[in-house]
């Protein structure tokens, strides 16, 4: 019997983890962009230097936590 | 432990080695292509992480040693033949630069060998379908769709930031994501050889049925796949990194993140999927999500053909080798000798058209791309 439930879990976990980590890293880089000097033809970012750094750091921490949680789930088994 | 069992274990480790260099591309092709990692550094890092990954889980090994075939009805000669067929197929596809599935080759060899020796009744078809074939068919599609969606999201968010920062950030992030794929590869693929060696030990009564792999098996398999990975399968790295599409650092990161998520979540549930197919699916998905026009669908179609051919071809080779090996000592020696001669021949042919760490990035790109953040800092 095909384990459709387990396959669904794989799909949902894969989708959720990937989108969350990729989205958080992208958002972190947007936040950290506020620290970069504005270049010609480049629109300004939505964050101030301080808030951008904070957003970047928080997003990177959360993304790291998701990855570590995933590894922990595997090792703990 | 008999000479035959030792020969089977050594052959299994040889398969594990070929699995390593055949699949180095899975983890490192896009990172090498985007310049996130130097080729030599990339393969050495992948080798080390494959070794660590081998110790993370044994769920897949249990699936192989306890589920695919009736261990009471096969002999070490059959497993030897199956492994020989799988090694030969791996070497042929490596020569062609085709990222085919080492897992398919192994399962095909095992199924073919068991079939000719003990009949179809000795194959647990329901387990083969449920735990191997269905995940193998679905996993590249899932990885591709996940990567497609994540790439779309990544580009939308990244468009709000500074191009240079985004490009540099994703390139640095690729070092981590590629490392995660290497770790996942060690977790998933090293277990397949662990499963085969455990199966051999069960068939000769050295381990009770449904045993988990002993620590020395885990250690040897981890070391073999790590050594193979560190050799670098440059031909397949070039195919995956350059011939499918021009991959940018954002796409490379997303492809690697999606591959890691699919491989690790599947390995955790005991699904023995193909890491090659997952990573190729993810690369195709991220390439399509970034710039659909840059994807070389003819290359993708060739790969799909190779995927479809791998299982039956390895089954035929495995069946032939297992039938010969099961004739007795002479048959086993003939199979071993033939394998060594063919391996040397393939190596000699490969030397006429070498692809090395220095030339792996020389291949022409699919099409020039403009869009993405990575381009600004390139």
From TrEMBL, chain A:
The chain crosses the membrane at residues 12-34, 54-75. It comes from the Bacteria. Keywords: Membrane, Transmembrane, Transmembrane helix. This is Secreted protein. The keyword Transmembrane applies.
UniProtKB/TrEMBL annotation, chain B:
Signal peptide: none annotated. It comes from the Bacteria. Coiled coil: none annotated. It is found in: Membrane. Keywords: Membrane, Phosphate transport, Transmembrane, Transmembrane helix, Transport. The chain crosses the membrane at residues 43-66, 78-98, 104-125, 132-155, 215-237, 299-323, 329-350. The keyword Transmembrane helix applies. Its main location: membrane. It is a multi-pass membrane protein. Pfam families: PHO4. Belongs to the inorganic phosphate transporter (PiT) (TC 2.A.20) family. This is Phosphate transporter. The lineage of its organism: Bacteria, Bacillati, Actinomycetota, Actinomycetes, Pseudonocardiales.
């Amino acid at each position: 019997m095909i384990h459709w439930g387990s396959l669904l879990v794989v799909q949902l976990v894969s989708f959720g983890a990937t989108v969350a980590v990729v989205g958080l890293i992208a958002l972190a880089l947007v936040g950290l962009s506020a620290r970069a000097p504005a270049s010609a033809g480049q629109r300004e970012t939505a964050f101030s230097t301080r808030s951008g750094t904070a957003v970047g750091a928080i997003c990177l921490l959360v993304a790291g936590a998701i990855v570590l949680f995933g590894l922990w789930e595997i090792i703990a088994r | 432990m008999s000479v035959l069992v030792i020969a089977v274990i050594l052959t299994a480790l040889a398969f594990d080695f070929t699995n390593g260099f055949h699949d180095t591309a899975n983890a490192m092709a896009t990172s090498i292509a985007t310049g996130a990692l130097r080729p030599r550094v990339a393969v050495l890092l992948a080798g080390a992480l494959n070794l660590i990954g081998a110790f993370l889980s044994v769920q897949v090994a249990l699936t192989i040693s306890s589920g695919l075939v009736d261990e009471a009805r096969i002999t070490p000669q059959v497993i030897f033949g199956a492994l020989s067929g799988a090694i030969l197929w791996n070497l042929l596809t490596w020569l062609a630069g085709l990222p085919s599935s080492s897992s398919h080759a192994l399962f095909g060899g095992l199924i073919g060998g068991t079939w000719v020796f003990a009949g179809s009744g000795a194959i647990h078809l329901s387990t083969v379908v449920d735990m191997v074939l269905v995940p193998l068919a679905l996993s590249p599609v899932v990885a591709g769709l996940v990567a497609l969606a994540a790439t779309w999201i990544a580009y939308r968010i990244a468009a709000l930031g500074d191009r240079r920062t985004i490009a540099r950030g994703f390139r640095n992030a690729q070092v981590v994501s590629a490392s995660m794929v290497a770790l996942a590869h060690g977790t998933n693929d090293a277990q397949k050889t662990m499963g085969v060696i455990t199966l051999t030990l069960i068939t000769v009564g050295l381990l009770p049925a449904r045993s988990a792999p002993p620590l020395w098996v885990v250690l040897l398999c981890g070391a073999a796949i790590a050594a193979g990975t560190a050799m670098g399968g440059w031909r397949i790295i070039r195919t995956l990194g350059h011939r499918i599409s021009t991959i940018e650092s954002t796409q490379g990161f997303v492809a690697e993140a999606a591959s890691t998520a699919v491989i690790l979540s599947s390995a955790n549930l005991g699904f023995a999927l193909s890491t090659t197919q997952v990573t190729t699916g993810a690369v195709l998905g991220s390439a399509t999500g970034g710039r659909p026009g840059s994807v070389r669908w003819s290359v993708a179609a060739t790969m799909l053909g190779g995927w479809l051919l791998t299982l039956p071809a390895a089954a035929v080779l495995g069946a032939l080798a297992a039938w010969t090996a099961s004739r007795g000592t002479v048959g086993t020696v003939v199979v071993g000798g033939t394998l060594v001669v063919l391996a040397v021949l393939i190596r000699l042919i490969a030397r006429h058209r070498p692809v090395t760490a220095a030339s792996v990035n020389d291949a022409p790109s699919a099409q020039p791309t403009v869009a993405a953040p990575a381009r600004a800092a390139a």
